[in-house]
Amino acid sequence: MNQLFDALKIGDHTAKNRVFMAPMTRGRATAEGIPLPHMATYYAQRATGGLLITEATAVSAQGVGWVNAPRIDSEEAIAAWRPVTDAVHEEGGLIFLQLWHLGRVSHPDFLGGELPVGPSAITAAGESHTPLGKKPYVEPRALDASELPGIVADYANGAKNAIAAGFDGVEIHGANGYLIDQFLKDGSNQRDDDFGGSIANRWRFPLQVVDAVAAAIGAERTGLRLSPTGSYNGMSDTDPVALYAHGAPELDKRNLAFVHVVEHVPGHMFATPGAPAVAPTIRASLRAPLILNGGFDRETGNAAIAEDRADAIAFGTPFLANPDLVARLSAGSALNQPDFMTLYTPGEKGYTDYPTLG
308 CB contacts (<8 Å, ≥6 apart)? Predict the structure, then answer.
């Protein structure tokens, strides 16, 4: 079975295989969030993947919250991303930009002393990696409903800027405890207005973002990432199956390019013990391609596609250390192991210097 190496229609594009590159923050931009030249080399090296999804990229100054992570909210950023997309396209690749707002898991050190924002004034578990070192997350300021249209517009503007920079589309980051995920889950959203409480209300802001981005650049160039049972950044929900059983038909109506679900295979180090499998619930209501991510290898990835549980598999860590991952999976070759000490460090070491076959 070689389902991983079959082509797949993604919106108006055709991915040459189903080995997709998951978004991974690498901290290689400038302190101001401007992409640097070696980022073009990094992504071009991995352009044999069917679809590359970039590291999370902030849509506004308020959405920033990671040292040396990129942005997409200025003409300077657009211009600096253009060599990246050009390099990937020259290698025959397809690349989407991931749109990001950190919400409550930013920190005043990134925000000129202002508090980060979230759906409710509930502090996340964990620490922020600030320009001044690790610091505990602070209690966020609960967003007023009147502020939400401006944030929705930031996502739409980020999408338009991404297309201007040459990207083939965008993925909205609705996973891993960032702003959209914070609105979805009742562990972080305890609002009593139209954007909290019921499941339908908690989906209201995320769907407004999806609709605005799709209106700005086309639904066929818009994807969404979700992590139904992820606990990263202190996330939780009392009934994730019901939450995404409601959301999946709503997403299906919107004819997106894809939906990307993080659901770690059992036994994976990031799997949440006892968590229900939610991806099958999403799959049952969704006609758009479904991408799964979370500890897959060649065997389990092929099986997921063959059994119609997914249309493509997004690989994270394996792509980090193996720019030629597609060739290695095809040949059944051993994989390079990543150097985690250089995961977020500046420069090309541990970034563009991993060896390829031969």
Answer: 283
Q: Which two tokens stand for residue 232?
A: 């990263």
pLDDT in tens, 181-212: 999 999 999 999 999 999 999 999 999 999 99
Confidence of residue 269 (pLDDT cuts 50, 70, 90): low
Query: Does residue 230 contact residue 278 with C-beta atoms inside 8 Å?
Result: no
Among residues of the chain, what percentage have pLDDT more than 90? 95
**Residue 151 confidence (pLDDT):** 98
Closest listed residue to residue 311, CA positions, set 3, 2, 16: 3
Q: Which residues are catalytic?
A: 178
pLDDT at residue 155 is higher than 80: yes
Count of CB atoms situated within 10 Å of the CB of 172: 27
Is the CB of residue 107 less than 8 Å from the CB of residue 116? yes
Going by C-beta distance under 8 Å and a sequence separation of 6 or more, which residues neighbour residue 37? 83
Q: Specify the amino acid at residue 265.
A: V
pTM for the model stands at 0.97
Region 20-49: what's the mean pLDDT? 98
